[in-house]
Amino acid sequence: MSELPRPSYIGKVRDVYDLGNSLILSSTDRVSAFDVVFRQIVPGKGKVLNKISAEWFSYFKDIPNHIIETDVSKFPSPYKDHPELKDRSVLVKKCKRIDFECVVRGYLSGSGWKEYKQDGTLAFKKLPTGLKESEKLPEPSFTPAIKNDTGHDENVSEERMKNEIGSELFSILKEKSISLYTRAAELVAGAGILLCDTKFEFGISDDKVILIDEILTPDSSRYWAESTYVIGTTPPSMDKQILRNYLEKSGWNKVPPAPDLPESLVVELQAAYKEIQDRLLKCLSQEST
Protein backbone atom coordinates (compact mmCIF):
# COMPACT_ATOMS: atom_id res chain seq x y z
CA MET A 1 0.00 0.00 0.00
CA SER A 2 1.33 3.44 -0.93
CA GLU A 3 1.62 6.11 1.72
CA LEU A 4 -1.38 8.41 2.19
CA PRO A 5 -0.54 11.82 0.65
CA ARG A 6 -0.24 14.73 3.01
CA PRO A 7 -3.39 16.86 3.28
CA SER A 8 -3.44 19.91 1.02
CA TYR A 9 -4.95 21.85 3.92
CA ILE A 10 -5.23 21.11 7.62
CA GLY A 11 -8.18 22.86 9.21
CA LYS A 12 -9.18 23.05 12.83
CA VAL A 13 -10.97 19.71 12.78
CA ARG A 14 -10.78 18.52 9.16
CA ASP A 15 -8.07 17.50 6.73
CA VAL A 16 -8.60 18.42 3.09
CA TYR A 17 -7.08 16.61 0.11
CA ASP A 18 -7.20 18.52 -3.17
CA LEU A 19 -7.73 16.23 -6.17
CA GLY A 20 -8.07 18.99 -8.76
CA ASN A 21 -11.77 19.17 -9.60
CA SER A 22 -12.77 17.55 -6.31
CA LEU A 23 -11.79 17.41 -2.65
CA ILE A 24 -11.70 14.79 0.05
CA LEU A 25 -12.89 16.15 3.39
CA SER A 26 -11.77 14.00 6.30
CA SER A 27 -13.28 14.65 9.72
CA THR A 28 -10.67 14.08 12.42
CA ASP A 29 -11.15 13.56 16.14
CA ARG A 30 -9.62 16.97 16.88
CA VAL A 31 -11.78 19.36 18.83
CA SER A 32 -11.83 23.15 18.67
CA ALA A 33 -13.69 26.00 20.31
CA PHE A 34 -13.43 29.76 19.87
CA ASP A 35 -11.20 29.06 16.85
CA VAL A 36 -8.57 27.29 18.98
CA VAL A 37 -7.64 23.61 18.60
CA PHE A 38 -7.12 21.58 21.78
CA ARG A 39 -4.38 19.06 22.48
CA GLN A 40 -6.84 16.34 23.44
CA ILE A 41 -8.99 14.51 20.91
CA VAL A 42 -12.49 13.09 21.32
CA PRO A 43 -12.17 9.50 20.08
CA GLY A 44 -14.65 8.65 17.34
CA LYS A 45 -15.89 12.22 16.97
CA GLY A 46 -14.92 12.53 13.31
CA LYS A 47 -16.84 9.40 12.35
CA VAL A 48 -19.92 10.68 14.19
CA LEU A 49 -19.83 14.02 12.37
CA ASN A 50 -19.24 12.37 9.00
CA LYS A 51 -22.10 9.90 9.43
CA ILE A 52 -24.64 12.42 10.70
CA SER A 53 -23.81 14.92 7.95
CA ALA A 54 -23.98 12.26 5.20
CA GLU A 55 -27.39 11.09 6.42
CA TRP A 56 -28.76 14.64 6.46
CA PHE A 57 -27.41 15.33 2.96
CA SER A 58 -29.19 12.19 1.81
CA TYR A 59 -32.41 13.20 3.56
CA PHE A 60 -32.35 16.63 1.88
CA LYS A 61 -31.68 15.16 -1.56
CA ASP A 62 -34.00 17.76 -3.13
CA ILE A 63 -31.40 20.43 -2.25
CA PRO A 64 -28.32 20.25 -4.55
CA ASN A 65 -25.14 19.59 -2.54
CA HIS A 66 -21.44 18.94 -3.02
CA ILE A 67 -21.37 15.21 -2.24
CA ILE A 68 -19.89 12.96 -4.94
CA GLU A 69 -19.19 9.81 -2.91
CA THR A 70 -19.40 8.72 0.75
CA ASP A 71 -17.97 5.20 0.27
CA VAL A 72 -14.20 5.45 0.66
CA SER A 73 -13.68 2.21 -1.32
CA LYS A 74 -14.97 4.13 -4.36
CA PHE A 75 -12.58 7.05 -3.92
CA PRO A 76 -9.80 7.52 -6.50
CA SER A 77 -6.45 5.84 -5.82
CA PRO A 78 -4.48 6.02 -3.63
CA TYR A 79 -7.07 7.33 -1.17
CA LYS A 80 -9.46 4.38 -1.41
CA ASP A 81 -6.80 2.06 0.00
CA HIS A 82 -6.27 3.89 3.28
CA PRO A 83 -8.30 2.71 6.29
CA GLU A 84 -7.61 5.95 8.20
CA LEU A 85 -10.06 7.69 5.85
CA LYS A 86 -12.79 5.06 6.21
CA ASP A 87 -16.09 6.21 7.78
CA ARG A 88 -14.80 9.73 8.33
CA SER A 89 -14.37 11.10 4.78
CA VAL A 90 -16.41 12.27 1.80
CA LEU A 91 -15.46 13.06 -1.79
CA VAL A 92 -17.02 16.37 -2.81
CA LYS A 93 -17.20 18.79 -5.71
CA LYS A 94 -14.80 21.70 -5.63
CA CYS A 95 -16.76 24.93 -5.81
CA LYS A 96 -16.55 28.62 -5.01
CA ARG A 97 -17.40 29.04 -1.35
CA ILE A 98 -19.77 31.85 -0.35
CA ASP A 99 -18.00 33.43 2.60
CA PHE A 100 -21.01 33.75 4.88
CA GLU A 101 -22.31 31.31 7.46
CA CYS A 102 -26.08 31.04 7.14
CA VAL A 103 -27.13 30.71 10.78
CA VAL A 104 -30.76 30.03 11.67
CA ARG A 105 -31.99 30.31 15.24
CA GLY A 106 -35.24 28.91 16.55
CA TYR A 107 -34.56 29.73 20.20
CA LEU A 108 -32.94 32.64 22.01
CA SER A 109 -29.66 31.25 23.26
CA GLY A 110 -25.88 31.60 23.04
CA SER A 111 -24.57 34.75 21.37
CA GLY A 112 -28.13 35.58 20.30
CA TRP A 113 -29.21 35.74 23.96
CA LYS A 114 -26.18 37.89 24.80
CA GLU A 115 -27.09 40.36 22.05
CA TYR A 116 -30.73 40.45 23.12
CA LYS A 117 -29.84 41.09 26.78
CA GLN A 118 -27.58 43.97 25.78
CA ASP A 119 -29.51 45.61 22.94
CA GLY A 120 -32.93 44.01 22.73
CA THR A 121 -32.06 42.81 19.23
CA LEU A 122 -31.17 39.65 17.37
CA ALA A 123 -28.91 40.05 14.33
CA PHE A 124 -29.41 43.80 14.77
CA LYS A 125 -33.21 43.51 14.49
CA LYS A 126 -35.51 44.50 17.35
CA LEU A 127 -37.28 41.69 19.19
CA PRO A 128 -40.29 41.92 21.53
CA THR A 129 -39.35 42.90 25.06
CA GLY A 130 -39.50 40.48 27.96
CA LEU A 131 -38.19 37.38 26.23
CA LYS A 132 -36.32 34.89 28.41
CA GLU A 133 -33.20 32.85 27.80
CA SER A 134 -33.83 29.78 25.62
CA GLU A 135 -37.35 30.94 24.77
CA LYS A 136 -38.67 29.83 21.40
CA LEU A 137 -38.65 32.68 18.92
CA PRO A 138 -41.89 33.77 17.22
CA GLU A 139 -40.40 32.37 14.00
CA PRO A 140 -36.99 31.05 12.92
CA SER A 141 -34.53 33.94 12.61
CA PHE A 142 -31.81 34.23 9.95
CA THR A 143 -28.67 35.57 11.65
CA PRO A 144 -25.71 35.46 9.23
CA ALA A 145 -22.03 35.61 10.07
CA ILE A 146 -19.11 36.46 7.81
CA LYS A 147 -16.23 34.00 7.65
CA ASN A 148 -12.90 35.62 8.48
CA ASP A 149 -9.62 33.98 7.49
CA THR A 150 -8.09 35.28 10.72
CA GLY A 151 -9.83 35.76 14.03
CA HIS A 152 -13.40 34.84 14.89
CA ASP A 153 -16.31 34.78 12.49
CA GLU A 154 -18.33 37.99 12.80
CA ASN A 155 -22.10 38.26 13.24
CA VAL A 156 -23.48 40.66 10.64
CA SER A 157 -26.80 42.17 9.65
CA GLU A 158 -28.91 40.94 6.77
CA GLU A 159 -28.31 44.31 5.11
CA ARG A 160 -24.54 43.88 5.14
CA MET A 161 -24.77 40.39 3.68
CA LYS A 162 -27.19 41.60 1.03
CA ASN A 163 -24.91 44.49 0.11
CA GLU A 164 -21.87 42.21 -0.25
CA ILE A 165 -23.37 39.35 -2.27
CA GLY A 166 -26.40 40.97 -3.92
CA SER A 167 -30.13 40.82 -3.18
CA GLU A 168 -30.88 37.83 -5.41
CA LEU A 169 -28.25 35.52 -3.95
CA PHE A 170 -29.05 36.73 -0.44
CA SER A 171 -32.74 35.85 -0.87
CA ILE A 172 -31.88 32.37 -2.17
CA LEU A 173 -29.57 31.63 0.78
CA LYS A 174 -32.00 32.94 3.38
CA GLU A 175 -34.93 31.01 1.96
CA LYS A 176 -32.97 27.76 1.67
CA SER A 177 -31.51 28.10 5.17
CA ILE A 178 -34.83 28.75 6.91
CA SER A 179 -36.50 25.95 4.94
CA LEU A 180 -33.75 23.47 5.89
CA TYR A 181 -33.88 24.49 9.55
CA THR A 182 -37.68 24.27 9.69
CA ARG A 183 -37.82 20.84 8.07
CA ALA A 184 -35.04 19.47 10.30
CA ALA A 185 -36.55 20.95 13.48
CA GLU A 186 -39.94 19.41 12.72
CA LEU A 187 -38.38 16.03 12.06
CA VAL A 188 -36.25 15.82 15.21
CA ALA A 189 -39.07 17.17 17.38
CA GLY A 190 -40.78 13.85 16.82
CA ALA A 191 -37.85 12.20 18.56
CA GLY A 192 -37.96 14.53 21.55
CA ILE A 193 -35.09 16.72 20.33
CA LEU A 194 -35.14 20.50 19.98
CA LEU A 195 -32.96 22.06 17.29
CA CYS A 196 -32.01 25.33 18.95
CA ASP A 197 -29.90 26.71 16.11
CA THR A 198 -27.65 25.60 13.28
CA LYS A 199 -25.52 26.95 10.46
CA PHE A 200 -25.35 26.11 6.78
CA GLU A 201 -22.70 26.92 4.21
CA PHE A 202 -23.20 27.25 0.48
CA GLY A 203 -21.04 27.43 -2.62
CA ILE A 204 -21.40 28.06 -6.35
CA SER A 205 -20.88 25.17 -8.78
CA ASP A 206 -21.72 25.47 -12.50
CA ASP A 207 -23.42 28.79 -11.71
CA LYS A 208 -25.78 27.10 -9.24
CA VAL A 209 -26.05 27.43 -5.47
CA ILE A 210 -25.24 24.17 -3.68
CA LEU A 211 -25.11 23.12 -0.04
CA ILE A 212 -21.56 22.40 1.17
CA ASP A 213 -19.46 21.70 4.26
CA GLU A 214 -21.35 19.72 6.92
CA ILE A 215 -24.98 19.99 7.94
CA LEU A 216 -26.86 19.57 11.20
CA THR A 217 -24.00 17.94 13.08
CA PRO A 218 -23.38 18.46 16.80
CA ASP A 219 -20.42 20.67 15.78
CA SER A 220 -22.54 22.99 13.63
CA SER A 221 -25.79 22.87 15.63
CA ARG A 222 -27.16 23.21 19.12
CA TYR A 223 -29.39 20.29 20.12
CA TRP A 224 -31.43 20.00 23.32
CA ALA A 225 -33.40 17.12 24.75
CA GLU A 226 -37.02 18.23 25.08
CA SER A 227 -37.15 16.47 28.47
CA THR A 228 -34.55 18.86 29.93
CA TYR A 229 -35.78 22.06 28.26
CA VAL A 230 -36.76 24.83 30.69
CA ILE A 231 -37.32 28.43 29.57
CA GLY A 232 -35.13 30.89 31.48
CA THR A 233 -32.23 28.45 31.79
CA THR A 234 -29.41 27.13 29.64
CA PRO A 235 -30.62 23.61 28.83
CA PRO A 236 -28.03 20.82 28.82
CA SER A 237 -26.57 20.46 25.34
CA MET A 238 -26.05 17.34 23.25
CA ASP A 239 -23.30 18.90 21.14
CA LYS A 240 -20.08 20.93 21.21
CA GLN A 241 -21.77 23.52 23.41
CA ILE A 242 -20.77 21.28 26.32
CA LEU A 243 -17.17 22.27 25.64
CA ARG A 244 -17.98 25.95 25.16
CA ASN A 245 -19.93 26.06 28.43
CA TYR A 246 -17.00 24.48 30.28
CA LEU A 247 -14.55 26.98 28.80
CA GLU A 248 -16.78 29.98 29.56
CA LYS A 249 -16.66 29.03 33.24
CA SER A 250 -12.96 28.08 33.28
CA GLY A 251 -11.55 31.59 33.21
CA TRP A 252 -9.62 30.94 29.99
CA ASN A 253 -9.25 34.13 27.92
CA LYS A 254 -9.91 32.27 24.62
CA VAL A 255 -6.41 33.09 23.38
CA PRO A 256 -3.92 30.33 22.49
CA PRO A 257 -2.47 28.25 23.92
CA ALA A 258 -5.53 26.17 24.69
CA PRO A 259 -5.82 24.74 28.20
CA ASP A 260 -5.77 20.99 28.74
CA LEU A 261 -9.21 19.43 28.97
CA PRO A 262 -10.03 17.09 31.87
CA GLU A 263 -10.57 13.47 30.92
CA SER A 264 -14.07 13.61 32.40
CA LEU A 265 -15.03 16.33 29.91
CA VAL A 266 -13.66 14.31 26.98
CA VAL A 267 -15.73 11.33 28.13
CA GLU A 268 -18.81 13.53 28.49
CA LEU A 269 -18.34 14.92 24.97
CA GLN A 270 -17.82 11.45 23.55
CA ALA A 271 -21.04 10.20 25.17
CA ALA A 272 -23.03 13.24 24.02
CA TYR A 273 -21.89 12.87 20.41
CA LYS A 274 -22.75 9.17 20.45
CA GLU A 275 -26.19 9.83 21.94
CA ILE A 276 -27.14 12.51 19.43
CA GLN A 277 -25.89 10.29 16.60
CA ASP A 278 -28.02 7.37 17.74
CA ARG A 279 -31.12 9.50 18.18
CA LEU A 280 -30.75 11.40 14.91
CA LEU A 281 -30.00 8.31 12.83
CA LYS A 282 -32.96 6.47 14.32
CA CYS A 283 -35.15 9.46 13.54
CA LEU A 284 -33.88 9.70 9.95
CA SER A 285 -34.18 5.96 9.31
CA GLN A 286 -37.78 5.91 10.50
CA GLU A 287 -38.58 8.83 8.23
CA SER A 288 -37.10 7.12 5.17
CA THR A 289 -39.05 3.87 5.67
Automatic annotation (TrEMBL):
<dbReference type="InterPro" id="IPR001636">
    <property type="entry name" value="SAICAR_synth"/>
</dbReference>
<dbReference type="Pfam" id="PF01259">
    <property type="entry name" value="SAICAR_synt"/>
</dbReference>
<dbReference type="GO" id="GO:0005737">
    <property type="term" value="C:cytoplasm"/>
</dbReference>
<keyword id="KW-0436">Ligase</keyword>
<protein>
    <recommendedName>
        <fullName>Phosphoribosylaminoimidazole-succinocarboxamide synthase</fullName>
        <ecNumber>6.3.2.6</ecNumber>
    </recommendedName>
</protein>
<keyword id="KW-0658">Purine biosynthesis</keyword>
<feature type="region of interest" description="Disordered">
    <location>
        <begin position="134"/>
        <end position="159"/>
    </location>
</feature>
<comment type="pathway">
    <text>Purine metabolism; IMP biosynthesis via de novo pathway; 5-amino-1-(5-phospho-D-ribosyl)imidazole-4-carboxamide from 5-amino-1-(5-phospho-D-ribosyl)imidazole-4-carboxylate: step 1/2.</text>
</comment>
<keyword id="KW-0067">ATP-binding</keyword>
<dbReference type="GO" id="GO:0006189">
    <property type="term" value="P:'de novo' IMP biosynthetic process"/>
</dbReference>
<feature type="compositionally biased region" description="Basic and acidic residues">
    <location>
        <begin position="149"/>
        <end position="159"/>
    </location>
</feature>
<keyword id="KW-0547">Nucleotide-binding</keyword>
<dbReference type="GO" id="GO:0005524">
    <property type="term" value="F:ATP binding"/>
</dbReference>
<comment type="similarity">
    <text>Belongs to the SAICAR synthetase family.</text>
</comment>
<dbReference type="InterPro" id="IPR018236">
    <property type="entry name" value="SAICAR_synthetase_CS"/>
</dbReference>
<dbReference type="InterPro" id="IPR028923">
    <property type="entry name" value="SAICAR_synt/ADE2_N"/>
</dbReference>
<feature type="domain" description="SAICAR synthetase/ADE2 N-terminal">
    <location>
        <begin position="9"/>
        <end position="257"/>
    </location>
</feature>
<dbReference type="GO" id="GO:0004639">
    <property type="term" value="F:phosphoribosylaminoimidazolesuccinocarboxamide synthase activity"/>
</dbReference>
